Amino acid sequence: MGPRAFSGIDLSEDALPVLELARQFAEERLRPTAEARDESEDVFDADIHRELGELGFLGMRVPEEHDGLGLDLLTYLYVLEELAWGDAGVAVSVSVHNSLPVSILLARGSEDQKREWLPKMARGEALAAFSLSEAGAGTDAAALRAHATRDGDDWILNGEKLWVTNGASADLVFTFVRTDTREDRKGTRGIGAFVLPKGTEGFSAGKKERKMGQRGSETVALTLDEVRLGPEHLIGEPDRGFSYALEALEGGRLGIAAQALGIASAAIDEAYEYAATREQFGRPLRTFQGMEFKLGEMLTALEAGRGLLERAAVAHMVGDPRARRLSSVAKLFASETAMEVTRQAVQVHGGYGYSREYPVERLFRDAKVTEIYEGANEIHRSLIARQLYRERGDEP
């Protein structure tokens, strides 16, 4: 196995043990069991998530005062790449929990909400999910139809949500619904963010999606049927939920970029091992110049993706105004790198790459969705251009 994400990086003494632990967990627990999770996609691996919580990986972005590890953004992303090298489906579950609900609570939650939920989330006692998308609201996420109406101090939620990672097994679902009225629609300024605990009357998980890849990640629909929530479940202002979601998704895109690079890294390892052991014309495949070119291009793309991700992470850490654009750039490049690298890894294996006997077939399927979720790559191309216009003072 070759060098991975954090090799040669100058990290703090506190970060290195966490990264070494992530590497060990990926090697010993995730990678050997990834195929089983892929084949039994209807079964949520509660044991793996319990272990992740015990090791602190569900509290990586939670401050120490709330029982978390309090990792900086860059170290957290390195950990995600390590976990994704082991199993991308598990890594996206960890990423959603850490980068979306946690960041929303930290940025917009009340002190009471932070004290109530963050320690449980950090210790792995409460797995969290993020629910924004609906049947008619994907890229146009503001076109939500699920709604909340006031009833005294309470809110009554109704509607259907889709594509919720961790949705059926989560203890807390951070969900976004309309809080304006049908008679007075306010667009993005008419959406609220709510914390929805598991077991709340009227709240249920629907069908689990049968997916092409990342089958170890649970993705479900949710039904809200006269769900009553008290005011303590509303996060921030009742009309600002959409802006809170967008803030969180900026960081979430970096998590998806890290996940994509972990998939690409695993594919390169598999391609190298196969090329080193498979012989044709009396010598290993890796000794042919054409194979050297292929492996060299794959590794160059991976390292370029890592460089972009590190640049974007640092931009967020120092408050660089280009941080939003760089999040989109990193996600776009890393996800397309994952697709190309896994495609090439399948090609290296020849006919065996098309067989489920070898992991590259699964890695190829796992890579595809990184081009779709947290914003499809087509929309990121537009976002990057529009952010450039704004930076130049040239609003389209």
Q: What would you note in describing this structure?
A:
This protein has 396 residues and is α+β, with helices and mostly antiparallel strands. It is 50% helix and 15% strand. The protein has three domains: 15-127, Butyryl-Coa Dehydrogenase, subunit A, domain 1 (Orthogonal Bundle); 129-240, Butyryl-CoA Dehydrogenase, subunit A, domain 2, CATH 2.40.110; 243-391, Butyryl-CoA Dehydrogenase, subunit A, domain 3, CATH 1.20.140. It has helices at residues 15-30, 34-39, 46-54, 73-86, 88-99, 101-108, 111-123, 241-277, 289-318, 323-349, 359-368, 377-391; strands at residues 128-131, 147-151, 154-165, 172-178, 191-197, 203-208, 219-229, 234-235, 279-280, 283-284. The strands form three sheets. It has a four-stranded mixed β-sheet. Strands 2-3-7-6 form a four-stranded antiparallel β-sheet, with helices on one face. A hairpin with a 2-residue loop joins strand 2 and strand 3. The longest helix is centred in the middle third of the chain and has 37 residues, at 241-277. The N and C termini lie far apart (48 Å).
